[in-house]
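Fold this complex.
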Amino acid sequence: MKIHKHEVIIVGAGGAGLMAALYASKKADTAVVSKLYPTRSHTGTAQGGVGAALGNMEEDHWEWHAFDTVKGSDYLADQDAVEVMCRDAITTIYELEHMGLPFDRTPNGKISQRRFGGHTNNTTHKAVMRACHAADRTGHMILQTLYQQCIKNKVNFFNEFQVVDLIYNNGVCSGVVAYEVATGEFHIFHGKAVMFATGGWGKVWSITSNAHTLTGDANAICLRRGIPQQDMEFFQFHPTGIYRMGILITEGVRGEGGILLNGKGERFMVKYAPTVKDLASRDVVSRAIYLEVRQGNGVDGQKYVMLDVTPPTVNKYFQEDDARNPDGSLRHLTEHDVEAKLEDIADFCKTYLGINPAKQPIPIQPTAHYAMGGISTDIDGRVLLDEQKTVIPGLYAAGECACVSVHGANRLGTNSLLDLVVFGKRAGEHIAQYVQNVPFPELPDNATDSIKALLENLKNSSGKETVAKIREEMQDTMMDNVGVFREKVGIEKAIAKIHELQKRYQAISFQDKGTQFNTNLLEAWELGCLLDLAEITAEAALVRTESRGGHSREDYKERDDKNWLKHSIAWKNERGVTLKYKPVTITKYQPKERVY
Amino acid sequence: MEKSKATLKIKRFNPEKDNAPHWESYQIEVEPTDRILDGLNYVKWYQDGTLSFRRSCAHGICGSDAMRIDGRNRLACKILFKDLGEVITVEPIAGLPVIKDLIVDMEPFMEHYRAVLPYLINDDPPPPDERYQSPADRAKFDDTTKCILCACCTTSCPSFWAKEEYIGPAAIVQAHRFIFDSRDHGAAERLDILSDSDGVWRCRTIFNCTDACPRSIEVTRAISEVKREMLFRKM
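Structure:
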């Protein structure tokens, strides 16, 4: 077994991991360990934009961005963290531009910005142009730019190394155990600090925008080592996924003027969000689509509605709404705009649906998209051990796997890319400082024993269950019972099902017994992670008897600030899931009713 | 949607068992709009778990699942059964060492990528806000910013098959992205690297790369723009 010694070990090579690596590697010996080649990370699929109140198109202020974020979060976000994110957004976007990020430009050469759901002018309450974009491949450009900078700065990468355990004894974190995919060998990465940046776990649900590889690895590893997860009942369903496939269609489509139409051809969002209509927050729009379908207003009686960005429809509603550009002229959309500003969307529609979105509407349904919850951290990315906010020295997390919390109960579009770069940077800077002042912790004996045994057991099992079957049953039960809408009976059914699947998981077997690129084994291990996260999500959802943001209870339809304006913290042990709570940090935005 | 029968004829190689690659066929039922990747997953999940391939995003952005499908380089997640025949051949992309089944060693490819200095070079102190760039200047390199490093182009290139030292279309695309960026100061250095005998002149304008690119980048055009820039600058 190989032991690699680096001061900083970063697990995951998406936006947060790479941003942290850039900063940590300026002062400390840093290694990035990732199960994928960095440019395969899911940050690359983010489309519409990254939010920052640059004010390049019209008046805007970071304080407006902060308020919109808090309101979008249904007041569950920690406001000190939101203020940091929205204030730092501006300098961080400029910094990305200096690194070479090819943003689209205004006629006078500045970074171009577009409208996005939930982002408003706080005086007029109309949508504001805040999302900085590079066509509809903003995430791709962020990921490429950060990777390019890492190459320039000669960051050490260990690609296709699956991290399977955290070496964490008596409150001391001394590294991680990784399984080298190409050879099947175990490696220890011995460090002074470890940072997790492994992304989300959308694969818990059957319809998802998430990659096959988004299986919540770090979150499951932490749970197994006694480190809790925060706000796990809040998972975002993005309103516009391609029907049946779940592939994301950016909110930028609606930012450019796209309209949601039900089976009767009605623009139904006017009923649910009279002011910003189609550009309401994602939770609001996803619920509206479910309600329309439930009322029999889906297209052809099916579970989908249409997203229409064809110029005749868009321009009709621009006229009806009297939608104006900042210079006062009436907004107008052309087929060329659709092709130029939504190039990848046009490509997806052509490839997977055989349609041209400039001429035909797109069939869409809500798709499991983003984890608001995750590993609890402070604003410097330091992982917190409990509801008392006890810091674990040397352990960090950022990005989707973490929960700062800036997204609360519902994330605004463009704030995930922002979260990655702002808190990835802060964590990277903090780690670089931290490792200057501490020695390498001692590695415990037998650090790899338990995880090796777990993987060997998986490989040698001769049971009758299959990974595919168990995964499918988990995804279906979570989609049906712990999705956009939830209620007690359904959630309890899901919990019972997950428990059954966890038992059956002990009896899975698969054919590949080899050591090289055994993706059979990896899928089996990842399924174990998904089951843990599904269980925690359902348990936390059952206990929260209110509706807030992405957590919508049919049996408790109202938000209940008196009892539930608090974060959940969940632990998992042999006896099941334990939940505790901690208060939300409120600075200047007092909770009030949320209307769009 | 109605299901129909399809056969995936896959080139298999297990380094722990096989001396040479061999073909195996799998009969599956698919919907016409299923991706080839869905078919491969079906085989792996329900018929033969040892089948190995890379995949992640499954919608043509991450670039993991480049393979040779019916003789042409494609992303398995970006081509549908309805667009192919009943029997479909699937092989690893050519010109890189095969590790297992459809998985190749990407390191030689990434080495060529790194060789062109694929990052913005500009040591001037940055302004407090953004560097300005006109939409026209931004448009000059728009096409080449789309590259996802999937290797479809380079591994479809006969010049690369003939000589693995040839830097290949993907690396030239990446160089193009910076050479034509008005904010970049490293063009001379990159053009010098690409003027090497294994550089841009090894391109024989065969257009396989352009046909193979799943991001519809006009690769051959980008290469010719780099060639022209090299000639223009040297005069």
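The first helix of chain A runs from residue 15 to 27.
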